[in-house]
Amino acid sequence: MEAPLKVYKGLEGIYVLESALSLLDTENGKLYYVGYDVEELVAKSSYEEVSYLLLKGKLPTKAELEAFVEKLKGEMQLDEKELETVRLVSKRSSGMDALAAYFVLTGRGLVDDGSPMDQAIRAIGKAGSVLGNVIRIDGGEDAMYPDPSLGVAGNLIYLVTSRKPEPYQIEFLDDILILHAEHGVPASTFGAVVAASTLSDVYSSIVTGIMTLKGPLHGGASEAAYQQFVEIGDPNRVEAWLEKALSERRRVMGFGHRVYKIYDPRAKIVKAMAARAAAIAGGRVKALYEVASRLEEVALTKLAPKGLFPNLDFWTPMVYTAVGIPPNYFTAVFAVSRIVGWVAHVLEYWKDNRLIRPLHLYVGPPAGQKYVPIEERH
Ligand SMILES: CC(C)(COP(=O)(O)OP(=O)(O)OC[C@H]1O[C@@H](n2cnc3c(N)ncnc32)[C@H](O)[C@@H]1OP(=O)(O)O)[C@@H](O)C(=O)NCCC(=O)NCCS
């Protein structure tokens, strides 16, 4: 007898592609990019160098990195026409939508716009400059020219705050960008690869990735975690809040992960950063951190036995706040960083492209239903 057809809901446990980009060691709680421990990359590398690593599959020599950074700096510039496009998308939308809209309006992948690698580097360079300006405009300021000499992280903070960032702020955001750069095939990367498999262009994949990342079960969790800390308001209220939330079957935002059933290795790194951010910035960051720390402590007693631990998004709100990113833009910063992961997967997938076209199991009415004219239906 033939085995019954099975639907792999959520594609859980299904391998959909081969990739040399990242290794998620879910048993030991480690994450590697192209074989390099992400903890070491955060300590020693930069977002620019990690972008090179993911795009080219190896760490650059000094000369290679300098040439790559020069090219990236050129792409980080926005001319007056590009600033006008940012103003236009910001007038009609905000956040992730504005970022995606920018790439929809400027994506020229189907006409002559350099190689897919050139387009990838262009998108990585433009994204932070565009988002920084979208945030400015949303805050009532006018768009301004980027300062590529500050690097991707520093330039983004500069655009958002209109001030040259402190070195510790650049370091924090650079580390956050590294940690968000790549993570196998979550929904957004899968979406980007599905778009690419149709032989659409690099920009289409980026737009698909951005819109898929937006949901609160994926990239949107950090903002939800921030709102949750604000709602709790005080470490002394954590216990009562958690008891009520769990009794209402609400989820603790920033807890749980489809793949990690132990402490997310990225979350461990960001937790230490959040503690440092609270000590340096004080004020609001410290207040958020105190609530988060207490919530982690109490929630772990209930959720750890179920394999639910803090993920990256639990701790990032404190770091984003310390560098001046408004909460409704946390996910968009994640998107800016993850563009490199999306495009690296796209370039890798195109080396041996196969249209992605799964099957569905039909469960509707039997075939051959009689069509009844509309006047005779009741
Ligand atoms: C990330 C997430 C979607 C992964 O979930 P998943 O693998 O699909 O797990 P499920 O949704 O099947 O949940 C399994 C069980 O854990 C519980 N659970 C999962 N995440 C939970 C959370 N954050 N808080 C409380 N309970 C949670 C579910 O209610 C479910 O319980 P049940 O079996 O009693 O019904 C989920 O953990 C979640 O929604 N987390 C909060 C959002 C978040 O932080 N997302 C960022 C991911 S990086």
Summarize, please.
This protein is mostly helical. The chain has 16 helices and 3 strands.
Describe the protein in words.
The chain folds into two domains: about 15-215 and about 330-350, Citrate Synthase, domain 1; about 220-325, Cytochrome P450-Terp, domain 2 (Cytochrome p450-Terp, domain 2, Orthogonal Bundle), CATH 1.10.230. Helices cover about 60% and strands about 5% of the residues. It is globular. It has about 375 residues and is mainly α. The protein starts with about 20 loop residues before the first strand and ends in a 28-residue tail after the last helix. Helix 13 (about 265-280) runs antiparallel to helix 14, helix 13 (about 265-280) runs parallel beside helix 15 and helix 14 (about 285-305) packs antiparallel against helix 15 (about 310-325). It has helices at about 40-45, 45-55, 60-75, 80-90, 95-105, 115-140, 150-160, 165-180, 185-195, 200-215, 220-230, 240-245, 265-280, 285-305, 310-325, 330-350, and strands at about 20-25, 30-35, 35. Strands 1-2-3 form a three-stranded antiparallel β-sheet. The mean pLDDT is about 95. It contains 16 helices and three strands. Coenzyme A binds near residues 251, 256, 257, 306 and 308.
